[in-house]
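Example S7 (structure tokens).
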């Protein structure tokens, strides 16, 4: 089963700011584009244990409740790009043990650290580009031992994007990325980036 929602037909499945997605036991692909969700509540797809691909793009999402992805143990791809997300709750992705691709680009994230990625030991691709990160802290990606591609292009722009605001990458920020093949930060590389920052990044 595949469901695609966008703008004009959102009211068939969504109630106010909170999605109502119950009883979709055979759902494999769900795409939500240009809706007004504001918040993704706890267990909003609790019956969709077979779901493989979830896209919630350009839908004004500001908040993820901590258990919003609970029960989605089969999910392989999650796209949350082009929303207004400022904060990721600790362990929000903990049930997504087989997730391979996570796109958080074009949001309003200010900070991330290792507790945000607990449970994502099989993740292969992570995109956090076009956010407003102030820095990359030590061990930020230490949970992502299978990650092959990391994209953080222009992740340090100012809130209103008037210019790039380059900050810092702390020592051992990339610790644990043993499988990484591609690291993209060409436009916003902080001037303090050193070999120590790339510690244990082969």
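Recovered sequence:
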């Amino acid at each position: 089963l595949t469901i695609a929602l966008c703008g004009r037909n959102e009211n068939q499945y969504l109630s106010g700011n909170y999605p109502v997605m119950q009883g979709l036991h055979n759902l494999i692909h769900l795409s939500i584009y240009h809706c007004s969700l504001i918040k993704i509540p706890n267990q909003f797809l609790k019956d969709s244990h077979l779901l493989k691909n979830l896209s919630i793009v350009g839908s004004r999402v500001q908040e993820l409740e901590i258990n919003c992805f609970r029960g989605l143990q089969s999910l392989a791809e999650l796209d949350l790009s082009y929303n207004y997300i400022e904060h990721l709750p600790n362990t929000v992705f903990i049930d997504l043990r087989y997730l391979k691709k996570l796109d958080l680009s074009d949001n309003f994230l200010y900070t991330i650290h290792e507790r945000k990625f607990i449970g994502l030991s099989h993740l292969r691709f992570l995109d956090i580009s076009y956010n407003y990160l102030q820095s990359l802290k030590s061990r930020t990606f230490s949970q992502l031992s299978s990650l092959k591609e990391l994209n953080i292009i222009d992740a340090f722009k100012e809130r209103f994007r008037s210019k790039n605001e380059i900050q810092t990458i702390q020592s051992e920020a990339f610790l644990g990325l043993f499988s990484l093949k591609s690291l993209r930060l060409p436009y916003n590389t902080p001037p303090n980036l050193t070999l120590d920052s790339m510690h244990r990044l082969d």
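Notes on this example. Residues 145 and 177 are 5 Å apart (CA to CA).
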